[in-house]
Specification:
Distance between the termini: 16 Å
Strand content: 15-25%
Mean pLDDT: 95
Keywords: Transferase
InterPro entries: Beta-ketoacyl_synthase (IPR000794), Ketoacyl_synth_N (IPR014030), Thiolase-like (IPR016039)
Strand order of the largest sheet: 3-2-4-5-1-6-11-10-7-8-9
Protein name: 3-oxoacyl-ACP synthase
Number of strands: 11
CATH architecture of the largest domain: 3-Layer(aba) Sandwich
Number of domains: 2
CATH topology of the largest domain: Peroxisomal Thiolase, Chain A, domain 1
GO molecular function, one term: 3-oxoacyl-[acyl-carrier-protein] synthase activity
Order of helices and strands: EHHEHHHEHEHEEHEHEHHEEE
CATH superfamily of the largest domain: Thiolase/Chalcone synthase
Radius of gyration: 19 Å
Low-confidence stretches: none
Helix content: 25-40%
Structural class: alpha/beta
Organism: Neotamlana sedimentorum
Length: 354
């Protein structure tokens, strides 16, 4: 079957990740529980007139996708596949607020039109003139992995040659207040560098957009090979080690073949135990990395981990800020990504150096 390579990427996050010539050279450690993504110069990608009508999620998606395409030396792709947990939730809030404030009269349709989850994928297609397959997955915290799985299937079955995939989510005021009310966001201020030491409920929330060009052809810009992805809706903690070993065995690999693992622990005392089960058992001798103290938590935060893994494999270096446990191997060949959110939607991703 065809191999799948990451040939370009673009990332907008709470860190300085937009410049692909740097790799977490400057790390921001926040002391906030809700962290906005760092804005870039959107005027370089979107006309000011159009940008005024766009939600932040759309602008992040267009800028990140264009960066990925430019790095892959492509102007267009065969397909665009997007993952998002909440879509353009700011426009959703604007439209619903207008319904209440104006007694369901004199409503501006623009926020409604742009509030749909597939708006980002549609705007990217309009921007680059892509008339091919365009699909958006809204599968909670495996939205990005669902998009990735679709892309792998299409490339491996020769339906597409090059595909733009990505994960994007944005913050919105009312949604933030809801998450705070149900303790999904930590109630007290947390220092990012000590996130996992804070044994309380909830996580630090953020937003971001991470896009990648994947193809069946390796190029000079290739970052890594995507070996496989596996999604599991519900798992018990005592099933994790077995599922991990089964996933690796399907690739004729074992735990010993892993150079590092990237865990999605977010400091939530109720659910970080899932990561502890693997970290203290099957993966106890494997170098362990983490990232949500830098990216924050959101439905497609795992796309930041995908960006991190790709950067590590290409540069053969591991930024000190993401090291959780263990030394840095001399050669980095296989990286495993494991993520879950609030005990559900478990995902295993496996990347390989190329």
């Amino acid at each position: 079957m065809e191999k799948v390579y990451i040939n370009g990427l673009g990332s907008i996050s709470a860190q300085n990740t937009f410049d692909n010539s740097e790799f977490l050279n400057r790390v921001e450690f926040y002391t906030e529980n809700v962290i906005p993504a760092i804005d870039v110069n959107y005027k370089a990608f979107i006309s000011p007139a159009a940008a005024r009508r766009m939600a932040k999620g759309i602008k992040m998606g267009i800028a990140a996708s264009r960066t990925a395409l430019e790095e892959a030396n492509l102007e267009n792709v065969d397909a665009i596949i997007t993952g998002t947990g909440m879509g353009c939730v700011r426009d959703s809030e604007k439209f619903l607020s207008a319904i209440l404030d104006n007694d369901e009269q004199y409503l501006t349709p623009t926020p409604f039109i742009q509030s749909t989850h597939n708006t980002v994928g549609g705007q990217i297609a309009l921007d680059i003139g892509c008339k091919g397959y365009n699909f958006t997955y809204v599968h909670g915290s495996v939205s990005f992995e669902s998009a990735l799985l679709d892309a792998l299937l299409q490339i491996k079955t020769h339906e597409s040659h090059s595909i733009l995939i990505g994960g994007v989510d944005e913050l919105a005021p009312h949604t933030i207040e809801i998450h705070k009310a149900v303790n999904h966001i930590k109630s007290e201020v947390v220092e990012a560098s000590k996130l996992l030491e804070n044994k309380t409920k909830g996580a630090v929330f953020s937003e971001g957009a991470n896009f990648f060009v994947v193809s069946n052809e390796k190029s000079e810009t290739s970052y890594a090979e995507v070996v496989d992805v596996k999604l599991i809706n519900t798992l018990q903690t005592d099933e994790l080690n077995t599922e991990l070993n089964t996933f690796l065995e399907e690739q004729n690999l074992s735990i010993q073949d892993l150079s590092a693992v990237i865990l999605g622990c977010n400091g939530d005392v109720e659910f970080d135990g899932f990561y502890d089960v693997l970290a203290e058992n099957s993966l106890k001798d494997t170098p362990q990395l983490y990232y949500k103290h830098l990216s924050g938590e959101f439905h497609t935060a795992s796309s930041f981990a995908f960006w991190l893994a790709a950067g590590v494999l290409k540069s053969q270096t591991i930024p000190e800020a993401v090291v959780l446990k263990g030394g840095i191997p001399s050669e980095i060949k296989y990286i495993l990504l494991y993520n879950q959110y609030r005990g559900q939607n478990h995902s295993f991703n496996l990347l390989k150096s190329c």
